[in-house]
Amino acid sequence: MAALPESRLRQMIDRFEQVEARMGVATDAKEIVQLSRDHAELKRVAEKSREVLTLRNQLAEAEALIDDAGADRDFVNMAIEERAEIRSRLPGIEREMQLMLLPKDRDDDGSAIIEVRAGTGGDEAALFAGDLWRMYQRYASGRGWQVELVSATDGEMGGYKEVVAQLNGSGVFGRMKFESGVHRVQRVPATEAQGRIHTSAATVAILPVPEEVNIEVRDQDIRIDTYRSSGAGGQHVNKTDSAVRITHLPTNIVVTSSEKSQHENRRKAMEQLKIRLYEREREMKDTARSEARKLQVGSGDRSERIRTYNFPQGRVTDHRINFTAYNLDQFVQGDIEELLDALHAEDQAERLAQLEQG
């Protein structure tokens, strides 16, 4: 791994100090908000840059003392020990610095839409989709994120055919984005009299929620329908057509919202439509991102099988990074931090290798 040049490290420290100085005199509200974000992001980088520079200076001083033929032998021995310690610490700290400087997805810091849908497997797939949804709810709650249900369609035997929700909080999309794909379950369904193991699946999609969605939606490009909700909360709206479905005619994107208030459903559905149009535009325009993702954890393709939950063995396996753990009971209760950490570490390692190669 090539060491970062001193000029680059000092440049990042200078940039942080400039932002800090500007914060003391800025009066425009929008600028203050942006400066606060820049300050929070640059502070960690500046502190790590100072740490690297300090260790490099200490290493140079130790080596100069070791090479000094007239130096006291006790001081030389101390310098040899110090050099060994710095040489063992410095590569790891410089790697942390490199990781901080990796290009970030511009949507990583924001909220996210999560969609969980039953796949192959009939009623058992709907039950599994329900298990996944509750797993993510518990995880979100543990992180302090706000969960806002957008729409839900119940399965006939329980669970969900489909759940769409918004997870609001800082860094949600960046944390959750590798969950997109096909999740497979292997277990004995409650309705199986012979005790045979069935395989079912559910799909998960994670979409970014940008802070400002500058997407224009023309009235003539959408069709709005109302209908009776059959999902979560359906008992409250079964006498009125309060659920809302919006179809974007040019792209055939369909979004729904099925809460109690028709007015609120219109607002939520329109917001969801803009988010989906933003994601479509984001994927179409950002070809560099698309190419990079092929080298990262998975392709982001929602049809890619990413994980297996094997209940008879108590095992969860993520096929992208060959991660296997035997804590499935805790995992489906929302204890997914270890796997998410592993996915992000693999992604960082691959991107760092790509950066070093070219």
Structure description:
The chain is α+β, with helices and mostly antiparallel strands and 358 residues long. It is built from ten helices and eleven strands. It has two domains: 95 residues; 254 residues, Alpha-Beta Plaits (2-Layer Sandwich), CATH 3.30.70.1660. The chain has an eight-stranded mixed β-sheet with strand order 2-3-1-5-4-9-10-11. The chain is flat, with a radius of gyration of 26 Å.
Q: What is the number of independent domains?
A: 2
The overall average pLDDT, rounded, is: 85
CATH architectural arrangement of the largest domain: 2-Layer Sandwich
SS field, number of helical segments: 10
Largest sheet report = 8 strands, mixed
Order of strands across the main sheet? 2-3-1-5-4-9-10-11
* Rg (C-alpha, Å): 26 Å
What class do helices, strands and sheet pairing give? alpha+beta
**How many beta-strand runs?**
11
Strand content: 15-25%
Report the oligomer.
Answer: single chain
Q: Helices and strands in order, then pairings?
A:
Elements: H1 6-23, H2 29-67, H3 73-100, E1 111-118, H4 122-143, E2 146-154, E3 160-168, H5 172-176, E4 181-187, E5 198-209, E6 222-227, H6 234-237, E7 243-248, E8 253-257, H7 262-285, H8 287-293, E9 305-310, E10 315-318, E11 323-325, H9 328-331, H10 337-357
Parallel strand pairs: 4-9
Antiparallel strand pairs: 1-3, 1-5, 2-3, 4-5, 6-7, 7-8, 9-10, 10-11
